[in-house]
Amino acid sequence: MTAELTRGQNHPLPGSRLEIRVSAGTQVVAGATFGDENGTLHGADGVAHPGSPTLPGLEVSRQAAADHRLAVDLDAVPDAVHRVSVLLALPEAGRGPARFGAVAAPFVAVTHLDGDEVASYTITGLEAESAVVALELYRRQGAWKVRAVGQGYAGGLAELFADQKLPEAHRLAGTIHEAVAGGLARSVPAPPAAAPAHRPDHGSAPRSGGPDGAVPPGSPYDPQGAHAPNPQTPEAPGQRGAPQPYPGGPGGPDGPDGPGEPVTAGQPSAPAGAGPIDYTHPRRQTAAPPPPPPAAPPAEPGQPARPVAGDATGWSMEERLYNQVWGMFEDLARTTAAYRSAVDFADSRMEKELDQALSDPRNRIGGQGDAARQAARARHGQLVAQAREVLDRDVAQLVAETEVVEPALPAAFARWDNPVWHAYRVPMEIPMALRLGDLHLPEADRVRIPMLVRLPLERGLWIDCGRAASLDGLPADSHEMRRAGLETAVAHAARLLAVYPAGEFTVHVIDPAGSGAQALAPLVRGGVLAAPPAQGAAGAAEVLARLTQRVDLVQMALRGGAPDALPPGVDTSQHLLIVNDFPHGFDDRAVNQLRYLADEGPAVGVHLMMVADREESAGFGPLLDPLWRSLLRLTPVADDHLADPWVGHAWTYEPPLVPPGSQVLEQVLAQVAAARRSWGR
Fold it and tell me: Which residues have C-beta within 8 Å of that of residue 390, sequence separation ≥ 6?
């Protein structure tokens, strides 16, 4: 049984080989220190960090990421070490938050190698701190224990190291942040020479990381803990706790369908002159099961083959399109990572050349110094231009692929403006995935990748309607954001209703103050809700009690080995609960019921969709943090809050908005309601 620790509490550690898993609401740097019996750190060689990730019996992540796995072998820790402190810090050079108080409380767990938790700790109460000692593994009478520490430092890593009596605290903190900011963890090496060519029928040119065909050393560290690609178990980006193909997506940034695993950390790059580098994701397969994918039309001489919709592997067109979208996501992530790595390499090379040229006092004045600076900047510009040329070539190929894939997508994968919705009919089977929006990167703004999540949903959704920049760049007021958030939730709910067979998906709504009547009107008028939106504390309590009871009954039936032995009247369809205007109208009991539904509901067909302002909801403190962590955060406006666990890109998410003036939502819901009536639902 897992021990849920509070600050200062300790717990014995069984066994010596363990993992420490970290989950945070943003990218963090993970590290660890070796201290003596007094907790004193005697030198920088006793610190494991992204620039120097290993110590005897300990290995930490090589990059900043939202999720980490730290490997620990306590038997291999030197006898002189009595304390192993696990550190978390926010990157100084990142675009993310500058304090832990602006993100969800970090969660740290000590687990066996099979994933079973030994002890966990949610680090609450952080505000201005940018670094924190999360856990401490310590020796006591020959045995190891873990203690929840949660000691934060507003001065960041420098203050943390100084508190551990490290003489060179500021210098070491700077070294760590330089290692993260310098892109050591973002360098993408070439895959092994034996890797299969990437979709040869597309004829895309091989991708290179730099003008000379070489890439700076280093590779992404797998934040999910995998150290080698596994072509037999594809994953997609999406949900926390399980890797996904995109952030939040097919299966993907924060799940069971995430982008695949990265290349082994530290894999050497291809030497210069060894030929172009193939940046193909090693787990993207080219051998398709029957039926074979359609043949690509012939291309013009000297031009890449024209892309074809459904050219990926799969037993059905739906599966081939799903895998093709996943492959497009991987291609864009990898080529962008290669470009960023090449730019970082060019920057570091120019800086090194300038330092060498100006180290001689005779070159600091006069024409020689100016000539050296101009030559270094010219070489830098040439390297960046060549890297950009490669990126533009790959992006153009992806744009062409998007233009043929988007119109071919089925309704579950398509945008609301896709003509496929005009021929919509209620399906007889559940599709394999659902589109929750689009993803793109700033370097390739022309490419929009569908964000697909596998069905049935494996986690709920939180539509965050906190203050944000509106689409015109001006701050949106809270009323506008709440309205947009609920409209986004209605669009998601309508899409879920549309892709399930008649009567197999039921939607409930809690709107305590009745403030969402206008946004909820399409669902109410369409007659697709299980009951009118529940209002007031009593209405919310009644809906929560009914759904909680359903989860309990189904769980008991499954555990008893009698899934068909449910009481009469229990609705066995999938359920979605939309909660608007949270936390208004909710007490601690109701919040605990929401936590229970978020944790236990998806496994038995009950899903949660919250529409709330995270900052306003923070008043519940630690009671709400597990609920926040268990849901996939989406926004009603474009936002770059999603990060994939593969290379750590911050992807910009765009919600699936219904085109202004379009009646497609009402038409689809009318067909859903008619089909439900014909089936007596």
Answer: 207, 208, 335, 338, 339, 342
CA distance 44 to 51: 12
Residue 46 in contact with residue 34, Cβ under 8 Å?
yes
In a 3-state reduction of DSSP, which class is residue 561?
coil
Question: Locate tokens 């894939």: which residue?
Answer: 405
CB crowding 318-327: b at 16 or more within 10 Å, else e: bbbbbbbbbb
Nearest one of 274, 368, 366, 283 to 331, comparing CA atoms: 283
Report which of 255, 634, 252, 631 is spatially closest to residue 459, judged by C-alpha positions: 631
372-376, 532-536, 670-674: which range is least confident on average? 372-376
Per-residue three-class SS string for 349-398: HHHHHHHHHHCCHHHCCCHHHHHHHHHHHHHHHHHHHHHHHHHHHHHHHH
User: What is the spatial distance between Cα 517 and Cα 497, in angstroms, rounded to a whole number?
Assistant: 19
Residue 196 DSSP label: P
Structure tokens at 599: 């944790």
User: Is the confidence at residue 303, as pLDDT, over 90?
Assistant: no
CB 10 within 8 A of CB 81: no
Indicate the angle between helix axes 517-526 and 664-678, nearest 10 degrees.
Answer: 40
| pLDDT higher than threshold 80 for residue 15 | yes
CA atoms within 13 A on the CB side of 429: 5
Q: Read off the tokens for 193.
A: 């020479």
Place of tokens 């409380």: 105
Using an 8 Å Cβ cutoff, are 95 and 121 in contact?
no
Whose CA is closest to 495, among 320, 327, 657, 677?
657
- Cα–Cα distance for residue pair 68/223, rounded to 1 Å: 5
Helix or strand run (H / E) with residue 552: helix 536-559
Predicted local distance difference test score (pLDDT) of residue 570? 83
Amino acid at 21: R
The alpha carbon of residue 621 and the mean position of all alpha carbons in its chain are separated, in whole angstroms, by 23
pLDDT at 571: 83
Identify the band that residue 94 occupies on the pLDDT scale cut at 50, 70 and 90. Answer: low
Q: How is residue 549 written in tokens?
A: 């009871």
Instruction: For residue range 141-191, list pLDDT tens digits in order.
Output: 788 999 999 999 999 999 998 888 888 888 888 888 888 876 544 433 333
What does the pLDDT look like over 184-212, one tens digit per residue?
444 333 333 333 333 333 333 333 333 23
**Per-residue pLDDT tens digits for 304-340:** 667 888 888 888 899 999 999 999 999 999 899 999 9
Q: What is the pTM of this model?
A: 0.59
- pLDDT score of 681: 60
- H or E segment to which residue 209 belongs: none
Which residue(s) pair with 434 in the sheet? 453
Pairing of strands 606-612, 461-464: parallel
